[in-house]
Amino acid sequence: MELTQHVALVTGATSGIGIAIARRLVKDGFYVVISGRNAERGKEVASELGENGCFIQADLVAPGAPESLVDGVLDKAGRLDVLVNNAAIDHINWVLDSPQEEIREAFEINTFSAIFCLQAAGRAMRDSGGGSIINITSRLASIGVPTMSLYSASKGAMLALTKAAAVELAEHNIRVNAVAPGMTRTQMFKDWLASQEDPEATEREVSAAIPLGRVALPEDVAGAVAYFADPANSYVTGTSLPVDGGYLAK
Predict the structure, then answer these.
(1) H helix or E strand, kind and range, residue 175
(2) Which class is 7-181+217-241 in CATH?
(3) Mind listing the pLDDT tens digit for each residue in 108-153?
(4) In what order do the strands lie in the sheet with 31-36?
(5) Where in the chain are the domains?
(6) CB atoms near residue 90 (< 10 Å)
(7) Do residues 179 and 134 make contact, with C-beta atoms less than 8 angstroms apart?
(8) Which residues are paired to 64 by β-bridges?
(9) Model pTM?
(10) What share of the chain is helix, strand, coil (3-state, %, to 5)?
(11) Which residues pair with 82 in a beta bridge?
(12) For residues 172 and 122, what is the distance between their CA atoms, to the nearest angstrom?
């Protein structure tokens, strides 16, 4: 990498939206460090990114893992300009029937590990003069859907943190924003669709509820992330950008 090249860290970047974000940031001129638990997939994605990307294996729920990951980025690239908090898991269950271990797992990954990554990256950015932190939340952080209450809560916490941290970190020239995807055509979405009694009818129903009439592509989400990562947009902070085809505008 060039010494003047901006560096981005994308967590959970071995599948779905994370891969699309990494590809877009490399295209935009960033050196991109991706992280994930699956070493084989991580190395495959890093190989695709070429000389402007690398992979660091990390299980972000392990004690000290977020701090070690950021240290690894600094050792590898010498700087950290952008953090994309993308690592997450889905949780689908009725709120009254969800076992405590399920709830704790969802919050450990979706909320606590993201907070710890924000802390570690924020300290590095504070020492270097600033940066951009982008939290991938969800449209479900702002609405209620049956069986998704706990997932919504884990992402809603990150939405609240985005706004408060943006105010707190502004004095360090650290911007904090959120991207809130709606239904997105990832492998997880495809698997869910395949599990339905009539997948085609289900997809038509889902698309009909979206003003733009289609499910998002991972690249749509990556485009919003690229906006917040771009130093040209250095006056934007504390914002949540829905990428949901107009769903929340109804």
Answers:
(1) strand 174-181
(2) alpha beta
(3) 999 999 999 999 999 999 999 999 999 999 999 999 999 999 999 9
(4) 53-57, 31-36, 7-10, 82-85, 131-136, 174-181, 240-243
(5) 7-181+217-241, 185-215
(6) 12
(7) yes
(8) none
(9) 0.94
(10) 50, 15, 30
(11) 8, 132
(12) 9
